[in-house]
Amino acid sequence: MGWHYSKSIKVGPFRINLSRHGVGHSFGNRRFHVTTTPDGRRHVSVRLPGGFHVGKTFGGRRYHGHY
Predict the structure, then answer these.
(1) Which of 13, 15, 56, 67 sits between 20 and 30 A of 45, alpha carbons compared?
(2) 38's torsion region: left (phi>0), alpha (psi -120 to 50) or beta?
(3) Which of 62, 28, 60 lies closest to 44 in space, CA to CA?
(4) Residue 44 near residue 55 (C-beta atoms within 8 A)
(5) In whole angstroms, how far apart are CA 55 and each of 32, 34, 52?
(6) How far is Cα 29 from Cα 19, in angstroms, rounded to an integer?
(7) 10 strand-pairing partners
(8) pLDDT tens digits, residue range 5-55?
(9) pTM above 0.90, yes or no
(10) What is the C-alpha to C-alpha distance for residues 34 and 56, in angstroms, rounded to an integer?
C-alpha cells in the first residue's frame, strides 16, 4: 500500500500545490482554471452554466511508474 501527501497554499488568485511528486501550481476562478502538475502536464478546464464541465490536458509525463 502506498502513501499520499498533498498541501495547497493559496496566494491571491494562484495556488501552489505540494505533493510527494513535486510542486505544481494553478490559477483561475470558478469558471476558468489552469493547472500545471509536477510532471509537466497542463490541464485547462471551463465550467459552463447548467453544470457542464469541459477540460483538456496537454503534455506528457516526464517520469514513468508508481511511487
Answers:
(1) 67
(2) alpha
(3) 28
(4) yes
(5) 10, 10, 10
(6) 22
(7) 15
(8) 889 999 988 999 999 889 999 999 889 999 999 889 999 999 999 999 999
(9) no
(10) 10
Q: Which residue has the cell 510527494?
A: 20
CA distance 33 to 10: 14
DSSP-derived letter for residue 61 is -
Amino acid, res. 16: I
Cell of 3: 502513501
Under the banding of pLDDT at 50, 70 and 90, the label for residue 58 is: very high
**In this structure, what C-alpha cell is assigned to residue 2?**
502506498
Grid cell at residue 61 = 509525463
Can you tell me the distance from the alpha carbon of 23 to that of 25, in angstroms, rounded to the nearest whole number?
7
Give the three-state DSSP class for 5: coil
Residue type, 53: H
